[in-house]
Write a structure and sequence with these properties.
alpha/beta, Rossmann fold, 7-stranded parallel sheet, 6-stranded parallel sheet
Length: 389
């Protein structure tokens, strides 16, 4: 049986638990990393603070870090930010393997795609792009990218791993055949979050008291960086329109728009808005647990939105803008949530009222019934067959 090797820019809090799960599930899974920034800690320019994740990122699977020869070494400095020549040499040394490459936006990833199939490896591409966002992009750069994908990159891929429906549409727009497409959904550690949800239930009143939120209040949760792509100002405007003294808005995150958010709150005399600042992974579950509704307003660039998966593990209904890929797959309109047109504050305001005041959701589908498909188990099962060759 072949081994599965994931090529990542750095250890990622959503991916590392998957690799442990797959090994526990009997699929020999390893990871190659181009950078250790998320382990040693580094400035996250979008958060505006030093970030070092406080959950285990290297447990339960074999991994290897490779020296970065870039003159501007970082996953945040573009295509030439990751030049890991040792990974290229490793392709020649190892036995024939299944190599999952996350995108093509770094020199290292691009070279693995160029050489891997020639050396007998099974090269799988896992990118995030939703077709509904790609259709909105125009100009010569987009045309050049599409030409490069069709003529240079995609012919060198053995299998295309799609994270959701819109991502599958993206691949199919290039004529990729069904037999080369494998469902490899974007998922979080459902088991961990459901366990934490259960454990936190007896503590909800204490957590709310510590945060200064009344027990009877309804809480809207935003989770993400305060940045333009996430459109946090849309939610603030809709919250203002809701005009409910019994409702709180908790904005879990940090970022460059903080001063804009604070100015808006002050100018409009908004009460019941809590800006948490950066919260690390071990504490985010407390905020999901005390909330009644999760909202994400993101635009182009938010390819999926894994915080939606997290929120649903706590049984939260979701209001979601229509551009992120998860809107197509995780939301059943009027049942577990609503989808609104990105940037349409009136629609978002109506959705808030329909969930929190008018109780319009039917709740016929349990969130776990949806997430059981968007799970590590699905990924492990679907990739396992590639190892038998």
């Amino acid at each position: 049986m072949k081994e599965i090797i994931f090529l990542n820019s750095h250890p990622i809090q959503y991916f590392a638990p998957l690799y442990k799960f797959m090994n526990d599930d009997g699929v020999v899974t390893k990871a190659w990393y181009c950078s250790d920034e998320s382990i040693r800690g580094a400035l996250d320019k979008q958060f505006g603070v030093d970030v070092k994740w406080d959950i285990p990122l290297l447990n339960g699977y074999q991994y290897q870090f490779f020296k970065n020869y870039s003159w501007k070494p970082s996953q945040g400095t573009g295509f030439f930010g990751l030049i890991n020549l040792g990974i290229i040499k490793q392709l020649f040394k190892i036995q024939k393997s299944v190599i999952v490459v996350h995108g093509w936006n770094y020199f290292t990833h691009f070279m693995v795609i160029m050489l891997g199939k020639l050396l007998g490896h099974t090269i799988c591409l896992r990118c995030e792009m939703p077709q509904n966002q790609e259709l909105l992009k125009t100009g010569w750069k987009q045309k050049l990218k599409n030409w490069g994908l069709k003529t240079i990159i995609f012919p060198r891929i053995s299998n295309f791993l799609y994270i959701g429906t819109q991502n599958k549409y993206f691949y199919k727009s290039f004529g990729i055949k069904e037999n080369k497409l494998i469902f490899c959904p974007y998922s979080v550690d459902n088991t961990r979050f459901r366990k934490e949800c259960k454990e936190l239930m007896p503590e909800l009143s204490n957590i709310r008291k510590r945060l200064g939120i009344p027990l009877e209040a309804k809480v809207i949760l935003y989770s993400g960086k305060y940045m333009e792509k996430k459109r946090p100002m849309d939610l603030l405007n809709a919250f203002k329109n809701l005009n409910s003294d019994k409702t709180w808005l908790v904005m879990l995150g940090e970022g460059e728009l903080r001063s804009n958010i604070e100015d808006f709150i002050q100018e409009n005399k908004l009460k019941n808005v809590l800006l948490t600042g950066f919260v690390n992974q071990s504490k985010v579950s407390e905020f999901y647990a005390i909330s009644n509704l999760f909202v994400m307003c993101s635009e182009i660039g938010e390819t999926w939105g894994l915080s939606v998966n997290e929120a649903m593990n706590f049984g939260l209904p979701v209001i979601l803008s229509d551009l992120p890929g998860s809107a197509t797959d995780l939301i059943i309109e009027g049942d577990n949530g609503f989808v609104f047109k990105t940037g349409n504050i009136d629609q978002l305001s109506d959705a808030l009222k329909n969930v929190l005041i008018n109780n319009k959701l039917t709740h016929q589908t349990k969130p776990e019934d949806i997430l059981n498909e968007y799970s590590y188990s699905t990924i492990s099962t679907n990739l396992k067959r590639l190892t038998i060759a």
